[in-house]
Amino acid sequence: GAVVSQHPSRVICKSGTSVKIECRSLDFQATTMFWYRQFPKQSLMLMATSNEGSKATYEQGVEKDKFLINHASLTLSTLTVTSAHPEDSSFYICSASSFNRKQPQHFGDGTRLSIL
Amino acid sequence: SQQGEEDPQALSIQEGENATMNCSYKTSINNLQWYRQNSGRGLVHLILIRSNEREKHSGRLRVTLDTSKKSSSLLITASRAADTASYFCATDLSQGAQKLVFGQGTRLTINP
After folding, report:
1. Do A95 and B43 touch (CB under 8 A)?
2. pLDDT over 60 (residue A17)
């Protein structure tokens, strides 16, 4: 089946650091990638949708200058948490889908971000 | 706000028993999907049911959809310890970007 690789799996860093998370589709062309945030024992909240070669669409309440998303190719999207603070600590998950909407989204294994 | 509400929030049963989880949603949908999430991991797609379908099976999984009641259920038969996970329903509202809205999830524990 389709594989989405997310890296790193865990990040621990100091407050004020910027952190980049990569999401790669390994065996298909991901025309659209999604970034979610999940707090402990809660559901996934969609942060933004990115289409290859265009600007990301952010959900209401998500700061685009805080969470920078780049989708430069059909296999790679990145999420950069800029000047991270403890309240940004969370589990971030990406997913990818192809132009063929008959296929479900394929999820990465997530990144546990801890800001000290 | 979340589209889906799931119940129960947590379910603990003995191995071999059946587990039923329910999901309700608020608006019209294109399809509804169920996902499983093991602790600290990403989501695994289980099954997709389209708005014009009423029931779907996949192995030990059975999903129903009642669009008149805006609800769906996931039944796992003959549960196994490996089924222990959180289960989420997700509704696909749009015709375009396949944007999913997730329910709150059910934490399922299968006791050996």
Report:
1. yes
2. yes
